[in-house]
Amino acid sequence: MILGISASGRKDGVTSEAVKGILEAAGLESEYITLAGKRIGGCIGCTLCASDNTCKVKDDWNTIGEKMLKADAIVFGAPNYFGRMNALGHACWERTFSFRHRELFNLAGKLGVIVSTDYEGNNFVKPEIEDFMLRNKMAIVEALQVQGYSQCYTCGYGQNCGVGNVVRKHGFLDEIKAEHLPPHFKEQPQSLFHAARIGKILGSMLKNR
Ligand SMILES: Cc1cc2nc3c(=O)[nH]c(=O)nc-3n(C[C@H](O)[C@H](O)[C@H](O)COP(=O)(O)O)c2cc1C
Q: Parallel, antiparallel, or unpaired for β 30-34 and 2-6?
């Protein structure tokens, strides 16, 4: 089973579409989860998980952690917020501390695919997800970087805000038109191609295991 997780706070954003695109291309049994709207706190360092590798903090992460344990592969996508992985994504991985005790690594050997989304294209999120996967002794198959969206296009003030991304890219505008908007996932030929390519590789690897 392939588990796809989108850590974005937006349930139908670019990260979500990219993760789903990879799952579809893999052509195997899969489950998709969005972290949007979920309550997931970070690890509190209580170490109550040390004896049984089970996190004792109770929130929406516990079910997700169980699904991570059952999966053969995890496609994890997260957006860049403030130059790093968003808090929901980070919290989700922090809690996998519970899987790493007494020389047991419960996610060891599971295949991992990274999806990183940002507006500026600097891809700061990929190495963060990669590091979490490697610390869990997962095997990374591929990584996909997708062009994100900027909130400045829909916040209501973007056309005239000197700080925002709309004015930085297009100058001051009377109105933000469709032609100004960043492309959604389905309007990014390269992202569509690589999602299909990566999904196909993941599917082949799992089928032949
Ligand atoms: C709080 C916040 C901070 C952000 N900071 C950055 C940033 O520093 N660099 C960047 O390239 N994009 C930044 N973004 C843009 C997101 O990475 C972009 O909107 C992405 O598409 C979000 O993923 P989603 O479409 O799956 O929701 C930020 C977005 C939010 C909401």
A: parallel
Q: Give whole-number Cα distances, 187 to 12, 76, 78, 190, in Å.
A: 15, 21, 19, 9
Q: What pTM does this model have?
A: 0.97
Domain residue limits, the chain: 2-149+185-207, 152-183
Q: Which fold has domain 2-149+185-207?
A: Rossmann fold (3.40.50)
CA of 20 to the centre of ligand 1 (A): 19
Q: State whether the beta carbon of 8 lies less than 6 angstroms from ligand 1.
A: yes
Nearest ligand 1 atom to the CA of 80 is 17
pLDDT tens for each residue of 53-100: 999 999 999 999 999 999 999 999 999 999 999 999 999 999 999 999
